Automatic annotation (TrEMBL):
It is found in: Cell projection, Ruffle membrane; Cytoplasm; Mitochondrion inner membrane; Mitochondrion intermembrane space. The lineage of its organism: Eukaryota, Metazoa, Chordata, Craniata, Vertebrata. It is a peripheral membrane protein. It comes from Pygocentrus nattereri. The keyword Membrane applies. It catalyses: octanoyl-CoA + H2O = octanoate + CoA + H(+); (5Z,8Z,11Z,14Z)-eicosatetraenoyl-CoA + H2O = (5Z,8Z,11Z,14Z)-eicosatetraenoate + CoA + H(+); dodecanoyl-CoA + H2O = dodecanoate + CoA + H(+); decanoyl-CoA + H2O = decanoate + CoA + H(+). Its main location: membrane. Keywords: Apoptosis, Cell membrane, Cell projection, Cytoplasm, Fatty acid metabolism, Hydrolase, Lipid metabolism, Membrane, Mitochondrion, Mitochondrion inner membrane, Transit peptide. Belongs to the THEM4/THEM5 thioesterase family. Its EC number is 3.1.2.2. This is Acyl-coenzyme A thioesterase THEM4. One of its GO terms (molecular function) is hydrolase activity. It holds the Pfam family 4HBT. The gene is THEM4. The keyword Chaperone does not apply.
Length: 254
């Protein structure tokens, strides 16, 4: 019979084989190497702790509008460049995969751990119906330390009639900025997020969420963010945020 401590350690190791976390952690440690970002998929697939193959939610589906697909195709094309000799090689942009489970175990005792293991889902990926809520894909540019998210807001995100709820916009901003901060700095948590809503976003429309590194000060990573129309002529939202690097034990109550 395995002792609880050993079992817990194995669980934590398995948790970090989750692509959402392990991939990002490896990204951070390899940031300066040319192969940064290349380990997301191979690592996650080989050590995935659940029986089924994880679904990457950031792939095109039938709910995507032609505009969503057009912008997606534009950034996908930037992920691969052709050399003078006609060979394909990795470009400056990378699409981040997106799964609906994060850590398998977190603090909260046995019951919460079991509940998290079986039932917890990432908030932005918790609704199965395609197009009903958050449809998004994040592309990261490691050289420029910035990212762009293509976001199509579904009908369940309504706030003001016909427009997107401010909390849903904040959720996406936190997700995009948090994803970039984690890519750059490893395990982080949002400490501060300031948002200015400049113009409403129509429900069902597609917008771009641009985020960039401002500066790093010890454990503190400061980022900026702008939400714009896809042609970038209209500004919808602006944000700044502070992410603080954490010891992962922070999430396990150790
Ligand atoms: C296992 C790690 C997982 C990491 C995630 C990685 C990858 C995930 C990737 C994909 C997953 C997909 C999507 C993820 C979606 C969204 C990501 C968003 C993340 C979140 O949505 S996360 C939830 C909301 N978030 C919280 O639930 C945090 C609650 N909070 C705390 O847990 C602590 O508060 C903490 C840890 C923040 C700091 O605590 P601490 O004890 O470690 O550090 P301390 O307090 O000493 O602060 C150190 C220095 O930051 C300054 N500082 C701190 N707070 C400040 C503030 N508010 N304003 C201005 N400055 C502040 C201090 O002034 C000091 O500055 P100085 O060093 O200069 O004195």
């Amino acid at each position: 019979m395995m002792r609880p401590v050993a079992k817990g350690l194995i669980s934590i190791i398995r948790a970090f084989s989750n692509p959402n976390v392990a991939g990002i952690l490896r990204l951070q440690t390899q940031w300066n190497s040319p192969s940064a970002f290349q380990n997301i998929r191979p690592l996650s697939m080989s050590l995935w702790p659940f029986s089924a193959q994880p679904r990457d939610f950031s792939l095109p589906n039938a709910s995507w509008s032609p505009e969503m697909r057009r912008v997606y195709d534009h950034y996908i094309a930037l992920c691969e460049v052709e050399t003078i000799g006609g060979e394909k090689k990795t470009g400056p942009w990378r699409k981040l995969p997106s799964y609906n489970r994060t850590l398998k175990y977190a603090k909260g005792g046995t019951y919460l751990s079991k509940m998290i293991q079986s039932k917890a889902r990432l908030f932005t990926r918790s609704i199965k119906e395609h197009g009903a809520a958050f449809e998004y894909v994040i592309f990261v540019n490691k050289q420029e330390k910035r990212c762009v998210c293509v976001f199509q807001a579904g009908r369940l995100l309504e706030g003001p009639p016909g427009h997107v709820h401010g909390g849903a916009i904040a959720t996406m901003i936190d997700t995009v900025m948090g994803g970039l901060a984690a890519c750059l700095s490893g395990p982080i948590m949002t400490a501060n997020l300031n948002i200015s809503y400049r113009s409403p976003i129509t429900l069902g429309s597609v917008v771009l969420i641009h985020s960039a590194l401002d500066h790093v000060e010890g454990r503190k990573t400061f980022l900026t963010c702008r939400v714009t129309s896809t042609d970038e002529t209209k500004l919808h939202t602006e944000a700044t945020a502070l992410f603080v690097s954490i010891n992962v034990g922070h999430l396990f109550g150790t």
